[in-house]
Write a structure and sequence with these properties.
The protein is about 15% helix and about 35% strand. Strands 1, 2, 3, 4, 5 and 6 form a 6-stranded antiparallel sheet that branches. The protein is rod-shaped, with a radius of gyration of 26 Å. Bound molecules: zinc ion (2 copies).
Length: about 170
């Protein structure tokens, strides 16, 4: 998107709905795909004194493996982000957006980073997912159990009986 040609006056607002393709995210070694991969992004551009103000609004849904039980997990987020850009600011100035190169706005990179910032630390099938048993690897959601000496596995009990008989 060419920003320089917009030539907005202070107070003037330009709204655009654009499409952005989100590449899969890799978090904690798992891959999360955006569904759908191409999403509408609302971009609002206005001119404040000294800088262009860019506002982004989008809704992303990612799906992949639950970080605890490896079952299906999905996370949906409404994402808002704001950038400022002054074409006359020196390089590395805080009024120069990282997503603007020359006159071009890299909306794909910005949308992706904005989504990444909103993601939870852990993507889970449900908030209280019990995860997998660290001892036997079974899904504790489907089969809640503990491994303690007080409740021995019946197979071991049978073996112990056999041993006693020998
Ligand atoms: Zn889970
Ligand atoms: Zn177990």
């Amino acid at each position: 998107m060419d920003l320089r040609t917009l030539r907005l006056r202070p107070g003037e607002v330009r709204r655009e709905t654009l499409e952005v393709a989100l590449e899969p995210f890799v978090l904690g070694g798992q891959r999360y795909e955006a569904t759908p991969a191409t999403i509408p992004v609302e971009l609002e551009i206005s001119q404040a004194s000294g800088a262009m103000v860019l506002d982004l609004l989008l809704e992303a849904r990612l799906s992949g493996a639950c970080m605890r039980c490896l079952g299906f997990a999905e996370v949906a987020r409404q994402v808002r982000a704001r950038e400022f850009h002054d074409f006359d600011a020196p390089p590395a100035d805080e009024l120069r957006s990282d997503y603007v190169t020359d006159e071009h706005l890299d909306l794909t990179a910005w949308a992706r980073d904005a989504v990444a910032l909103e993601l939870p630390d852990q993507i889970l099938c449900r908030e209280d997912c019990a995860g997998l048993c660290p001892v036997c690897g079974k899904d504790l959601n489907e089969e809640p159990h503990e491994h303690t000496e007080r409740t021995p596995d019946p197979r071991w009990a049978a073996l112990a009986e056999l041993r006693d008989e020998l």
